[in-house]
Design goal:
rod-shaped, mainly alpha
């Protein structure tokens, strides 16, 4: 009888292993949908997935509160400039 060899690869994500997927999602702080997008873009290498997740966090849009506060500051500056003239 032949025995199937188990080849342990530490740096690859096995998408069929629910425990690995759950742990990686928790570690990267991503959802199922985001993880699927990361795997599609970067492959199954855990290092590549982590790197891509970090890059996506840098590209994300700031919260609406931050955008609103910067817009208010710009409006206040233009009003002050008009009054000064």
């Amino acid at each position: 009888m032949r025995r199937q060899r188990y080849s342990a690869t530490r740096n690859k994500l096995d998408l069929n292993n629910r425990v690995q997927v759950r742990i990686l999602k928790k570690r990267l702080k991503v959802s199922d949908k985001q993880l699927a997008g990361l795997v599609q873009k970067a492959g199954t290498s855990i290092a590549a997935l982590r790197k891509e997740a970090d890059l996506q966090r840098l590209v994300t849009v700031p919260p609406a509160e931050v955008i609103a506060s910067t817009q208010e500051a710009a409006v206040e500056q233009t009003v002050e400039e008009r009054i000064a003239v």
